[in-house]
Amino acid sequence: MQMAPVLINEYRKKESNRGAWTAEEDQKLAQVISIHGPRRWKCIAAKAGLNRCGKSCRLRWMNYLRPNIKRGNISDQEEDLILRLHKLLGNRWSLIAGRLPGRTDNEIKNYWNSHLSKKLKQIERQNSGLTATESEPKNPDEVAQVATSAANNREEGTSRANEDQKSSQLMIWDELFDRPAEGPLNLEWMSKFLEMDESWFYFA
DNA sequence: AACAACCTCAACCGCATCAGA
DNA sequence: GTCTGATGCGGTTGAGGTTGT
Prior knowledge:
Elements: H1 5-15, H2 23-36, H3 41-47, H4 54-65, H5 76-89, H6 93-98, H7 105-128, H8 132-135, H9 142-154, H10 160-178, H11 187-194
The protein binds a DNA duplex through helix 4 and helix 7.
């Protein structure tokens, strides 16, 4: 039996709450998760008395209520990292988010779609306006390097001690990132990269 | 002030994968 | 081996806010 779209929507509305979460719902959800832990989302939704599906509860927790969620603007360093990781991993947002503590895959995906994809397109357009020789990348990282040069420049204001520490860490960092450009992606390298401790990504 | 166009981001959807029965 | 429910992921949508005319 085929339902008209409007009827389907009405039916769904009666089934469960949809749309933005209220503070009350957040509170109920957080309370139940604090007792039972973040699993068995269907049960959690029922226990919290929320007229929401488990999936919706999970998403709300993962993207908003979870502790240590970092909210607010993406820093230059984070943007640099996203660009590099996206170049490496493609649209594997959860993997990228895994290397950015406190950031969610949804947040990074949104940031990419609204900011970075445009930024890259703009850079590509600029490059296409140059001569063939000028526009030819010096190495495969060029696009990301151009996009992040401003961020790197801003780092000049940091203290000397931090600079020394950064430069040594960046050498290793760059070595890791440069390696795949030399040839096909190396699985050993990839797994090494993905297992790296989060602290590698923050030089503060 | 009013409207349109654009932007941002929370939330939803469908599909794939995993784990347990 | 198969089924089923739970979970995770990436793509997409749409409401609300902002900016431009």
